[in-house]
Specification:
heterodimer, A: 289 residues, alpha/beta, TIM Barrel, two-stranded antiparallel sheet, 7 helices, B: 265 residues, Purple Acid Phosphatase, chain A, domain 2
């Protein structure tokens, strides 16, 4: 692949450590202004996965010694079969679900606590919040999203599921101070036991593509660089249409590595996108730790 | 194929984290229980006081050490401990601990750390054992009980031609034997209590009699003296609290939810 006068660099695949499922494609009940895959409630550009597809790839990944599974979207809890899929994955490896939290009520929190309690492996729930106040957060994520997400965090924490609050740096630096410290203080003040927080950079893609820096990686950038820091050397994503290089580029034709077997997707990845530069520069890891 | 050092009863120590008092107690206890050989799976410094005090104990007792991420970082003067933390609060405390340990480790001991091997292969009875710090593929990989799939253990055993994988790094012991006979053992840590609300620490005894048994041994030591020395050295009150109460107060964020739920914080 070529971009301008320069060959697009690629990286070799090392081994499969994480497998993601973009279960609801880009269907979401929110339409956050920084969403990297432009998810929203109307006309999703990427469709959902069915249970049989997910179960098939769980098996293929387990046979290769995968370390963990992630379920994302869109909003994964919009998928009617999500809990069944999570249970199937939890039977063989730890699982994380990335959610906006708005659909988590007492009944769903109870159900998640039951399957988590019955499993040998950990079930992590990541709830997205972008600021410690409703005013700031809802300006990014939509009206009422702060209250709903904070409620989900409390419901899960009360059941011992201690969710990881995931925030992007869309509002950081903020005049009110560093995001991590403010979020932590707010969660503690709200009675959330054991606050856990993961901060992510904003990606120049999706709704943040406009006006973003167009920097792309060159081969020279990779000279002397430890490419193990790039998550596409150890992760793959199952989404409508096949298997893709990383969670950020899922669904994009340029990042599709296989339309069928997982093993065919464990091949070198072209670092063609501006988001690849963000990963390179920030050390972004979509996984929990 | 390299011939393996062969034993019938060995003691395996996890991270020592400068806890020379627990190390001393564990060495005495392991000898009393008839251990023929003593191994330490790395991370000799960090967290505790007076980093240089563990080295003479290890050498005098003939403890065979392999290199942990902390040892590699201290030896090479790396920018950080390489523990693999990503949370800002964790990295804050890790930095305090690392800078203190680097300052307190002599040049001679750094050279000794630099020469440690990354893995050791031994046999206990008929079992081939691989000893490493984090995992066979990554010195700082966290192999927690609830995030280590059976299939990953099988893969590691297959790739390293081992029957038993022994590692530390997380600081919390566990073991699992698979239907295939392949076994994973996190040997725990001597340096810090394991977030169970008591100040005791743990090591692991592996015995071939002739079937292999893996036993976790509690170590009771003079934690109050350690706590006082840590406070005198100006180490964070959070570390001292952990030594006294047995609850982890920081560096918790890489811990999976099931393990996290068992602790106080």
């Amino acid at each position: 692949m070529w971009q301008g006068a320069e060959a697009v660099p690629d990286v070799a695949f090392r081994e499969l450590r994480t497998l993601w499922f973009q279960v609801t494609g880009t269907l979401c009940n929110l339409a956050c202004r920084h969403c990297f895959n432009s998810s929203g409630p109307r006309n999703p550009w990427l469709g959902s996965l069915d249970v049989a597809t997910v179960v098939r790839y769980i098996g293929e990944a387990a046979a290769r010694g995968v370390r963990e599974f992630y379920f994302t979207g869109g909003e994964p809890f919009l998928h009617l079969d999500l809990v069944r899929m999570v249970e199937a994955a939890l039977a063989v490896a730890p699982v994380t679900v990335l959610t906006n939290g708005t659909l988590i009520d007492d009944a769903l929190a109870d159900r998640l606590a039951r399957i988590a309690g019955a499993a040998r492996y950990s079930l992590e729930i990541r709830v997205s919040l972008d600021a410690p106040t409703a005013k700031e957060n809802d300006a990014v994520r939509g009206r009422g999203s702060f209250a709903a997400a904070l409620r989900a965090v409390r419901l899960l924490a009360d059941r011992g599921l201690f969710p990881i609050v995931t925030a992007t740096e869309i509002l950081d630096p903020s005049p009110a101070g560093p995001l991590y410290e403010r979020l932590r203080a707010r969660l503690i003040e709200s009675g959330v036991q054991r606050p856990r927080i993961k901060i992510l950079p904003v990606l120049p893609i999706g709704r943040c593509a406009q006006g973003a820096d167009e920097r792309r990686l060159t081969r020279k950038d990779l000279e002397g660089f430890d490419d193990a820091r790039l998550q596409c050397t150890e992760t793959r994503v199952v989404a409508e249409g096949g298997i893709y290089a990383c969670p950020i580029l899922a669904g994009l034709p340029g990042a599709r590595l296989s339309t069928d077997r997982l093993v065919d997707a464990l091949s070198p990845t072209a670092l063609y996108h501006t988001a690849c530069y963000t990963c390179y520069e920030t050390g972004l890891a979509c996984k929990n730790f | 194929m390299q011939e393996l050092l062969s034993h019938h009863r060995v003691a395996l120590f996890g991270g020592v984290y400068s806890n020379y008092l627990a190390l001393e107690a564990a060495i005495v206890d392991a000898r009393r229980r008839g251990a023929e050989a003593l191994y330490c799976l790395g991370d000799l410094g960090g967290f505790g006081p007076h980093p240089d005090r563990v080295f003479p104990l290890l050498r005098q007792a003939g403890v065979v050490c392999i290199q942990g991420n902390y040892d590699a970082s201290v030896a090479q003067g790396a920018a950080d401990c390489g523990c693999g933390y990503s949370d800002p609060r964790d990295t804050h405390f890790a930095r305090i601990s690392y800078e203190y340990t680097v300052r307190g480790t002599s040049t001679e001991n750094r050279r000794w750390l630099d020469a440690l091997p990354p893995v050791a292969r031994i046999s206990v009875g008929a079992s081939r054992m691989l000893l490493c710090h984090g995992s066979p593929r990554q010195i700082n990989e966290f192999l927690w009980e609830t995030t280590t799939p059976d299939a990953l253990i099988e893969k590691f055993c297959r790739e390293t031609e081992s029957d038993v994988l022994c590692f530390t790094h997380t600081g919390i012991k566990w073991q699992r034997t698979l239907a295939s006979g392949c076994r994973a053992v996190n040997v725990g840590a001597l340096g810090r209590p394991e977030n169970e609300g008591t100040p005791r620490v743990w090591y692991t005894l592996v015995i071939a009699d002739p079937d292999l048994t893996v036993e976790f041994i509690p170590v009771h030591y003079d934690f109050e003296t350690l706590a006082r020395e840590m406070a005198r050295e100006g180490l964070p009150a959070e570390f001292v609290e952990t030594v006294r109460t047995g609850w982890w107060t920081c560096c918790l964020e890489s811990m999976p939810v099931k393990e996290r739920a068992r602790g106080r914080y």
